[in-house]
Hints:
One of its GO terms (cellular component) is membrane. The chain is mainly α. The protein has one domain: Amino acid/polyamine transporter I, CATH 1.20.1740.10. The chain has helices at 2-20, 23-26, 50-61, 64-76, 78-105, 112-120, 122-155, 161-176, 181-206, 233-245, 253-257, 266-292, 306-340, 351-374, 378-405, 414-450, 468-471. The longest helix has 37 residues, at 414-450.
Amino acid sequence: MNNKHDAEKAQISPVRSQESTSPEILKAEPREQEVFQISEDGVDFRTVTWPRASIIFLKILFATGVLSIPAAMYEIGAVGGALILLGFGMLNCYVGTIQGDFRNKHPSCHSVADMIGFIAGPAVKELFGGLYIVAWVLCCGAGIQGTSVAFNALSENAVCTVWFSFISMIVVAMSASVRTFQNLGWVGWAGFISIYAAVFIVVVAVTQRDRPAAAPREGPFEFGYHAIGATTFHGGMVSTTTIFVSSAGTSAFVPVIAEMRRPQDFRKALYCCMGFVTVSYITFASVIYAYCGHWIASPALGSAGPTVKKVAYGIGLIGLIVSGAFYCHVAAKYLFVRILRNSRHLQANTIVHWSTWLGCTFGLASIAFILAQAIPIFNYLVSITGSLCFAPLALCVPAWIWLYDNSEYRRGGILKQILYGLHILLFLFGCFLCVAGTYGSVQSIINAYHNGTIGSVFSCKDNSGTVLGSTGGH
Length: 474
């Protein structure tokens, strides 16, 4: 056994050695250390390879977001929706590189909150740390909600939706309790294939129908397809932030990079993920909207009729559970590291270690369950998450840390000054999206409560699968 252990260490050692001499690590200040150290008698978090990081990134992004994009296209139109998808995909890829490069330059940063703390102090760090937890808890709530809709569809509403949500919360919390991204990545493969196959089935199914499944079976009807949509301000902001958040989860990539064997390889994983996700989003959402018009369900898996809906949710159930588990894991990992950082309990298999970790996963999943019941329409939950949380985290924070690392550009040549100004605009755009998007989401939720689309909190009335055409849209 000792010889085997020594052989394994000999195989891992060159990787560690190569990592420690990377240019990014050498540029770090001497006082900075990686959050997770090599551990022989505890859990070793630094085990994620870049291909495994790719699938983790893919599963974080290609999840609940893709289920809400077709409905968003109804508000802003097919051309506008496709252009916004492409634009945000490229922008979110760019800000992902900013975050990864900053983390590698400052390896003590485990999250975007640590990054802000590095440049703005502990008070601002705690503010963004709280926002980070809220963001991923809301995403976990969307995952729980999507899973409960799947249970409803498969059981034909056998029990109250609240009970299905509670069951979903337990399953998500148990799955999220896997301690390392490397091990969670194994179920990531199953989850990604599951949800991708489910969406693909719906895409194919809607093209085989003479008319949308939710439209009247006979006679003329308003299809509701527009190249350029005409909508209200708050409706447009809900749709824009829904599309934005579908690829804005780059803040969750930072703790994954912190668990990579070679953090400097993160760009390989990032580019593979963002390229694949952006192309898939544009293709799938455009086809579903082109064949369903405004007769789209939210989540989109219910758009091809009851039979296909059951098939899609049956196949996609694992993916929905894994999505919620990933989101819960990201939030719990931040809180866990925040509590036990610089303590031997962070990586040792102690009672304190396990009780803290399980307390984080089950506690945050419980909060996500409550929030999902308070905002029981799927696309509104996704939208308010994007505007209130991810606009600051995915746009303002990267712009801020870039300005910090490149302060000399302000007094450089004309091209450097232009680049510096563009990052100031990026920061201001994040602020605008946060304020305007939150206003639009809150107003839409108020309107939905007012017209009865949403029932009372914790009621058994489920509208997560509402077809837009049946309610006149948002």
